[in-house]
Amino acid sequence: MADTIIEVRDLSKNYIISHENGRDANANLRETITHQFKRMFSKSSPQQENNVQTSEKFWALQDVSFDIERGSRVGILGSNGAGKSTLLKILSKIIEPSEGYAKVTGHVVSLLEVGTGFHQELTGRENIFLNGVILGMSRAEIRKKFDEIVDFAEIAQFLDTPVKKYSSGMYMRLAFAVAAHLEPEILIIDEVLAVGDSRFQKKCINKMDEISRGDGRTVLFVSHNLEAVRSFCNKGIYLNSGKLAMQGDIEEVANKYASFYNGKLTAFKPNSHKPIFFNSITVNSPIVPFNNAIVLQCEVISDSHQDSYIIGMTITDTFDNKVGSILLNNKEPLKKGVNHINIKVPFTNVVPGDYKFITALALDETLNNEDVVWDYPGFTITPDSANNHFMIPKWHHSWGAHIMPDISFI
What we know:
Layout: E1 4-18, H1 29-40, H2 46-49, E2 55-69, E3 73-77, H3 84-91, E4 99-104, E5 108-111, H4 124-134, H5 139-153, H6 168-181, E6 186-190, H7 198-214, E7 218-222, H8 226-232, E8 235-240, E9 243-249, H9 250-262, E10 276-283, E11 287-289, E12 293-302, E13 309-317, E14 322-330, E15 337-346, E16 353-362, E17 369-373, E18 378-382, E19 408-409
Parallel strand pairs: 3-7, 3-8, 5-6, 6-7, 11-18
Antiparallel strand pairs: 1-2, 1-4, 8-9, 10-12, 12-15, 13-14, 13-16, 15-19, 16-17, 16-18
């Protein structure tokens, strides 16, 4: 009989969420810019914005049931908002379910956010002991593992420095080292390995593999890097919009997850009923070598002359993680009829993988979009052949001058 360590039955969790209802007259400059940018990529009109209900019940999870056997290495897959983090918080006893139950047998250590449980004013040394106590270890047990934790985290030089001065990578290294060396029966890792350099990320994967295969511990691993999930996990759970879409062998689950998102990249259809619309959007090459640029080629048709226009772009991976967004204000006129607009986008330090564009066009700083094209076109960044090593993405949530210095109309 299988040794079940986690049993989940009819698990549901709901939240009451509120919506923005118009502009805040007291908003600061950052909030105003954020609001305008969000409007540019909104599918609703400004008139509709004022009619949105102020709150609703949102089901993060609905009727989810599954079993996990002791010693399994389980990849939890799903897009942003699929319910992955909510599920892991319930399993970690951080939040309670609204319906159903989750029975967890054994000591759980969760690494859900970088630096969770750290005290900012304490040193790395002090936080190792603090985290160990929080995780249920005695001081003697922590001392026994102390040198291993420090060596693995690679922070010996900063051991007596307050962690408030640590970088996010140092936080992650120390947090993972503590969690992995305190011998939990169940280790839960939620995407935090996206922080830090690829060498240490591979080191973490190897450590997870060691404690699972060698010591028979159970690991639940959330990552949007399917290659990392496939290489480490033997089982998979795929969540879609809060519901269990599939569970079973990791290859079968990962393939279903990938095919679902590849299917979202549908053929482009112009919104030709609009007075200004994208008639076509292409890239100069669907294959982009690592650290190279791509040219987005847009054909825009307008029924009237416009003195200037703004192009807004968001780039996401095929699992809807945002790599970055930018607005480009072109002072050149948009002529009546056919317009050809080319935009050079360099991808400096964006890791290899599949990506897609969301492209919008507005006429002025109010950012009332004339047309938006969603999830098209797709393209692939290929690895650097001279440095083709294991990588886990470090996502850039916005582009800055040091990341994307040469985005321009050409």
